[in-house]
Write a structure and sequence with these properties.
alpha+beta, rod-shaped, 4 domains, single chain
Length: 346
């Protein structure tokens, strides 16, 4: 079982006690009583020193202590200084339950800090994954988790951290293997990470190791180096396509509303013209019907009035006026009355 505690273990104390006992037996063979008393005193002193050294332990602020007494679970220890029974009676395992732990895949952090540095040396196979359309992608990701149940984390499985790494790698390869390369490299990274987080938590719950997944995040997803140049060209083409689509939509949004406005205005003008023509036609019809009524009352007078009104409307529009006389049988002289009215010369 993995040792999560601190301080000397019970096996070490047993070995030291056995060594001291053997020394005492050797002295007893010499037959001297005073050396025996001296060794007994040393033995008692060693027992007191070792017992005192192993009677207290400290739990850090981000830790939880698991206390076993005679190999059976006794309780948990909160942060602070605590007493325990020495000589292997009580054993304490310290687990970091207050800290979010992180596992890195495809890369390792060399110098953490404000400007962290990373390395991928020797981790190429760990980061290479096969997508559903039989393309290879270089995926770097992290898994952040927290210990929810320290007892299960320590005792339900032999190596919980390595188990989390193995399961996480299997889930990532399964999810990416069910997706195409474009989804992995561009559009669906967030949804894929969410799916991985859900599947990973479900499997760990089945293992019952007391771990809660905080987040799964893709650190970097790129094509492998041999095809990176070709992928960049494809990506540039995709970006250019998106740019052209955006420009076309912009022009569409500019021209179509303008055309719709022009069409609406034309329809309104046509409707107005139709209303005007209909109203005018109705007016002409009413005027003709009124004239017809008057004509039926006095046909001769009405014909003469219509003739005079028509001449009054037509004659001013003519350039020259000729008067025909049936009795004379020819044309009468021109009457330049319009020129005189305008102040012109004959």
């Amino acid at each position: 079982m993995q040792q999560w505690g601190n301080g000397p273990s019970g096996e070490d104390l047993e070995k030291k006690i056995i060594d001291v006992t053997n020394q005492i037996k050797g002295k007893l063979g010499g037959g001297s009583f005073k050396p025996i008393k001296g060794f007994l005193a040393v033995l008692v002193l060693l027992l007191v020193v070792f017992g005192g050294m192993n009677s207290f332990y400290e739990v850090d602020t981000e830790e939880t202590g698991i206390v076993l007494r005679f190999g059976r679970f006794f309780g948990f220890s909160e942060p602070g200084l605590h007493f325990k029974i020495p000589f292997g009676v009580d054993r304490v395992y310290l687990v970091k339950t207050g800290r979010v732990l992180k596992e890195e895949f495809g890369f390792r952090t060399v110098t953490p800090g404000v400007r962290s540095s990373y390395t991928k040396r020797g981790l190429e196979e760990e980061s290479l994954t096969l997508t559903g359309d039989l393309n290879v992608s270089d995926v770097e990701w992290i898994v952040q988790f927290q210990v929810a149940d320290p007892f299960k984390f320590v005792f339900n499985i032999k190596d919980p951290v390595e188990t989390i790494r193995d399961i996480a790698e299997a889930v990532v390869r399964k999810v990416i293997g069910n997706s195409n390369v474009n989804e992995v490299l561009t559009t669906a990274r967030a949804s894929l990470a969410g799916s991985i987080e859900s599947d990973l938590q479900s499997i760990l719950n089945d293992y019952d190791i007391g771990v809660r997944i905080v987040t799964v995040k893709f650190q970097d997803v790129t094509p492998p180096d041999p095809v990176k140049a070709a992928f960049n060209e494809v990506n540039e083409a995709e970006q250019q396509k998106e740019s052209l689509i955006f420009q076309a939509r912009e022009q569409f949004n500019r021209e179509v509303p303008k055309a719709r406005g022009t069409a609406k205005r034309t329809l309104q003008e046509a409707e107005g013209y139709a209303v005007e023509r209909i109203n005018k036609a109705r007016g002409e019809t009413n005027r003709f019907l009124a004239l017809l009524t008057e004509y039926r009352k006095a046909p001769r007078v009405t014909r003469q009035r219509i003739y005079l009104e028509t001449m009054e409307e037509v004659l001013p529009k003519m350039e020259e006026t000729y008067i025909m006389d049936e009795k004379s049988g020819g044309l009468l002289p021109i009457l330049p009355m319009r020129d005189q009215l305008k102040g012109g010369k004959q």
